[in-house]
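Two proteins, back to back. First:
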Amino acid sequence: MDGGKEYVIRLGRIALICYFIGNNYIIGLCVGSGSLVLLTSCFLFSGHSLTKGGCMPLRKLREFLDSHSVRYFVVSHSPAYTAQEIAAAAHVPGKELAKTVIVTLDGRMAMVVLPASRQLDFGLLRALTGAGKVELAGEREFAGLFPECEIGAMPPFGNLYGMEVYVSEELEDDDEIAFNAGAHTELLRLSYESFRRLVKPKVAKLSLQMK
């Protein structure tokens, strides 16, 4: 291939080949010797996942999940921002896709997790929390809390950031939950039961259908 950089790591008859082309990279696993070489696996990834925004939060989250022996899947996909784009790019059912919304409750930051296809009902959240003032947090307000995450791609693990987490009850209808893992090119998927056990969110009716 032309126009890229190739790196090869060999161990006996096994070779791991990494080929970088622009913002993408290809990883291939080859087995063989001499003129006979068999490519057994090949993966194409978006180079955006190599940036600080994509790598660091995912690493932190994976370490946390691994320490609790949780089974999960990571999906790298082309940049996607809307629920429809993410579901299509990552081949994930839209009803399992969750989004993270940062709010302020009487000035205190909190995290709300909703189905990506629904919107937050501020009245229901106000009634649940007893807060007098419930507002969406501005990006400038919470960017410092997630310095390693891309805006709008924060994982719903508020416990890792010292934040309370509220979950819309519709997400309990699915066996799995999928969400952005710090970047708009990384999606993480795990059982909803594992998510609830680790995060310990407050679950209630919190959302409305998108208008």
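And the second protein:
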Amino acid sequence: MATEDLLRLCTPPHAVGTPIDWIAVENELGIGLPRDYKQIIEAYGVGNFGEFLWLFAPSVSNPHVNLQAQVKQQLDVMRAVTADGYESVPYPIDSHTSGLLAFGMTDNGDALFWNTAAGEQPEAWPIVVAGSRSGWSEYSTPLGTWLHDVLSGTIRVELFPDDWPGDTPKFVALDT
């Protein structure tokens, strides 16, 4: 239901990319992915919400939005931040299968993760937002509900700009 609410709030593009072999993606990552994430990626494809919030998609050629590439890169960034003593990361960062699993990013550099250490069921993983400059926020809600609530203004992410998402959230597709 949450994904359907998101689809009504923010219309997906008419044409999306090629079908995704989710079994192969999950095998490559070594972990299952939330069902609503897969539905959202299949409906919207690669792009951003409100010209600000990007979801990583599997197997796309652009490494900046490629899920597999960004899962590794974002975890490496968290490790580097901790190793340099810049910031303490309040979540496990040893492995994306038992810690932070990146699924998106904002234009300001805020990273979006699931906390996979929270349980075996992907649908129950909390969403974690890591601020680009500092700060962490956690939301115990599925991705479809979280996106809908953020885009509709029902919840506010303190780390995001005050004027985002605006009155009419839009999805902007990226040519890949």
